[in-house]
Every structure is written in structure tokens, then in C-alpha cells.
Amino acid sequence: EIVKKLMLFSCNVPQRLENECIDSMIGEALDLISPLLKQSNIEVEFFNHCPLAKASIDKVQFIQVLFNLLNNAIQASQTGNKIHVSLSEVREYINISIQDFGSGIPVEIQDKIFDPFFTYNKEGRGNGLGLSVVHGIIKQHKGRIQFSSEVDQGSTFVISIPKTQ
After folding, report:
1. How far is CA 84 from CA 38, 40, 92, 98, 132, in A?
2. Euclidean distance between CA atoms 44 and 41, whole angstroms
3. Structure confidence at residue 136 (pLDDT)
4. Secondary structure of the chain: what % helix, strand, coil (to 5)?
5. SS3 of residue 27 by DSSP
């Protein structure tokens, strides 16, 4: 599993790019993570501002990206919190925003969160590859990922990928 994630990070895994509807993939990722949401008593609000948005992406890899970011948001949140997911278009890009209202990321580690094997989780919870894999997959899709975070206020991760015409 670690080797596979490292290969994804280093962009050595072949992609199966297809023109995919983004909102349906968000729905699939939310379905996959729904048991964790229920267990944590966390609700997701999905704001879909462009339901027909499509991009040329590898569906399996992209659902993995969404799952990883949603899982991180759940881990950062307290029971009963909400997570906001938003889909929008800005010029030639599709933006997917995942916002939690949890613990936030301390300023002193924000420049390391995409590094392989770096983790802020408690021991036994993760191997520090999740965000590095997310970064690698987004980069491989000619996109970018940005985040903002404030301690005790939460974090927002925004994925921007080129849309198809």
C-alpha cells in the first residue's frame, strides 16, 4: 500500500483519463465515507454551483483524493460538526472546496503537510502519505491544491482542475 501511494505521489502510475461529471464523483466519495460521517455524527452540506461541470480525470484516483480530504476533515472535526463541500467554476477551472470547522493546522507545520511521511496525527492514525498522494494526483491532472487554516477555526482545501469544454 505504501509503495502504491509513493508511486501515485511520484506520478509513476498510468492514468485512465475520461471526461467525467464532477458532482457525481463527489456523490460517490460521500457515499463511500458515509459510515465514518455517521459514526462521528458529522453532517456534510454540498453546495453544487455547477452540476454539469466535467473534467478529464482518472475517476478512481480522483475519488481517492476526495475521500482522503473528507477523511482528514472528519478527523479534524468534533462530534456534531459540519463539513462544507462546494463545487464551482472559475474561468477554465473547476473548483472543489472542502471546509471543516475543526482543530485547524498549526502555522508551524503548514509548509510540511504535503511532504511524504509527514503526519500530525496521533500515533497509529495514518502514515503521512494522504496529502502527499492527493498533491501528486492533482498535479498529475494539471491542477493545483491550496489550503487555508486557522487553529481552532478549521481548514479549507480547494482543488482546481481544468474543465473540459
Report:
1. 16, 15, 23, 6, 22
2. 10
3. 86
4. 40, 30, 35
5. helix
How many C-beta atoms lie closer than 10 Å to residue 91's C-beta? 7
Cell of 74: 472528519
pLDDT tens-digit profile of 6-36? 555 555 556 789 999 999 999 999 999 999 9
Instruction: Quickly list DSSP for the chain.
Output: -HHHHHHHHTT-SPP--EEEEHHHHHHHHHHHHHHHHHHHT-EEEEEES-TT-EEEE-HHHHHHHHHHHHHHHHHHSPTT-EEEEEEEEETTEEEEEEEE-SS---GGGGGGTTSTT---SPTTS--S-HHHHHHHHHHHTT-EEEEEEETTTEEEEEEEEEPP-
Task: Give the rounded percent of residues in the chain with a pLDDT score beyond 90.
Answer: 63
d(CA 21, CA 116): 30
| Separation of alpha carbons 53 and 95, rounded Å | 10
pTM of the model: 0.87
Write the DSSP symbol of residue 108. Answer: G
